[in-house]
Amino acid sequence: MKHLGILRIGFKLLINDKAKFSALLIGITFAVFLMMQMTAMFAGILNRAFSTVTNIGASMWIMDPAVNTASSAIPLPNYLLDAVRSMDGVLHAVPIFMGSAMVKLDSGVYQSANVVGLDDASLLGRPNLEQGNIQDIYADKAFVVVHDAEYPKLESPVIGGGFELNDHHGRIVGIARVAANGLNGVPTLYTTYSRAIEYIPTTRFTISYVLVELKTVDAIATVKAAVARLGYVALTRDEFNQRISNFYVYRTGIGTNILLMTVISFIVGLSISGQTFFTFILENLEKFGALKAIGAKGRDLVYMILFMATFTALTGYGLGIGLVTLMISIARYRLPNYAAMITFGNMGLAFGMVLLIAGISSYIGIRKVLKIEPFDIFRG
Fold first, then answer.
1. Distance of alpha carbon 195 from the chain centroid
2. Looking at residue 359, what DSSP letter applies?
3. How far is CA 342 from the centre of its chain?
4. Is position 57 within any domain?
5. Residue 191 sits in the same domain as residue 295
6. Do 148 and 183 form a contact (C-beta atoms < 8 A)?
7. Is the same domain home to 296 and 263?
8. Taking a C-beta distance cutoff of 8 angstroms, is the pair 223, 212 a contact?
9. Measured distance CA(372)–CA(288) in Å, rounded
10. Which of 121, 242, 318, 372 is least enclosed by beta carbons within 10 angstroms?
């Protein structure tokens, strides 16, 4: 409370110079907007990259060690499924097929689609239906279509609608909603495992992944070790998501490009705010000297400058968050397949960078103010 008066003076000094205050806010707001926009796009890309794992929802996935993403499945031999089912701690294990095919629509247009073949007995990983009954998937030629941003690419089929897939006729029996949209802009169809491998040409092995549900969480280590002895990898849902994220971050250009743009945004914000704040300090040196002359200590002036820089930085941070939220909301409304999303992680990253900008700007101003001598001010 004893510093309240000096902080109030700093606040009035800051907002009274509307031009400099506006320039500071614009610089920080623009930097936060760019940083948030870049990291939000990256978060949206990662969220869609492991959308298949999220939508299927299995506790554990067994795969070939070379697999990096859910869409790059390497077929597994049939004996692996039997071996996993016999392991201690496994409640049940089922196969799943993931492939792609060209679908011929009623209009004669061809459209690529992802096809997910669910285990015939359990339908583990089935989506929630908006329309239709999941039991109808056992009917002849039956498929369930996902109602997401890519749904119109299949000409928005209704229940009872048809299409051709590799000279086989397919019929829509359900319309589903999933938790996350895919990354590659391709619509998704669900059917049974046996129908999927019948309709889509495959290699000698047809199992894309083995999905496992465990009796207890304690069985994770046991199952992982047993699968590793067979030459394969067992990953929990979170571990598989992390593997996919690491692939896009470290083994593709996406992570590098996003990081570069984020650093550039930080440098832009730092250069604008630092230069403007330093100019503001220079133009008000006489006022800081006068405060020293009437008894203000150097510590008081440091508190004042820290308050001014922090207040400006946090105000710009709030404006930047609001602006990027508005932009993403408008983009999603106009472009349903727009991937950007705001998370606590990228908000925290932007907040940390804004505090760093405020700290560097404060340091520049503090160094100048602490060198002021009231005698020099009044002599001038």
1. 34
2. H
3. 7
4. no
5. no
6. no
7. yes
8. yes
9. 8
10. 121
Give the range of the structural domain holding residue 34, as residue numbers without chain letter: 4-48+253-379
Domain shared by 8 and 132, yes or no: no
Q: Please tell me whether residue 191 adopts helix, strand or coil conformation.
A: strand
Q: Which residues pair with 93 in a beta bridge?
A: 212
Query: Is 285 within 8 Å of 377 (Cβ atoms)?
Result: yes
Give the CB-side neighbour count of residue 43, counting CA atoms within 13 A.
16
278 in the same domain as 205: no
Residue recorded with tokens 């051709």: 164
Q: Which pair of tokens denotes residue 286?
A: 């006489």
Q: How far is CA 361 from the centre of its chain?
A: 31
pLDDT, mean of residues 254-271: 78
**pLDDT interval class at 376 (50, 70, 90):** low
Does any domain span residue 373? yes
Question: CA 118, CA 331: separation in Å to the nearest integer?
Answer: 34
Whether residues 308 and 194 share a domain: the answer is no
Q: Whole-model pTM?
A: 0.78
Of all helices (H) and strands (E), which one includes residue 173?
Answer: strand 168-177
Q: What percent of the chain has pLDDT over 70?
A: 96
The size of the chain, in residues, is 380
**pLDDT-derived band at 1, boundaries 50, 70, 90:** very low
Same domain, 135 and 227: yes
In Å, what is the CA distance from 283 to each residue of 217, 238, 287?
65, 55, 9
The answer to whether residue 378 scores a pLDDT higher than 70 is no
Residues 173, 144 contacting (CB under 8 angstroms): yes
Residue 358: alpha-carbon gap to chain centroid: 27
Residue 316: both structure tokens together: 């710009």
Q: What is the DSSP letter of 17?
A: S
Read off the amino acid at residue 367. R
Query: Of 110, 205, 120, which is closest to residue 153 (Cα–Cα)?
Result: 110
Instruction: For strands 110-118 and 188-192, give the pairing.
Output: parallel
- Tens digit of pLDDT for each residue in 82-121? 999 999 999 999 999 999 899 999 888 999 999 999 999 9
CA 224 to chain CA mean position, Å:
28
What would the pLDDT profile of 318-327 be if each residue is shown by its tens digit?
998 999 999 9
**Domain check: are 221 and 260 in the same one?**
no
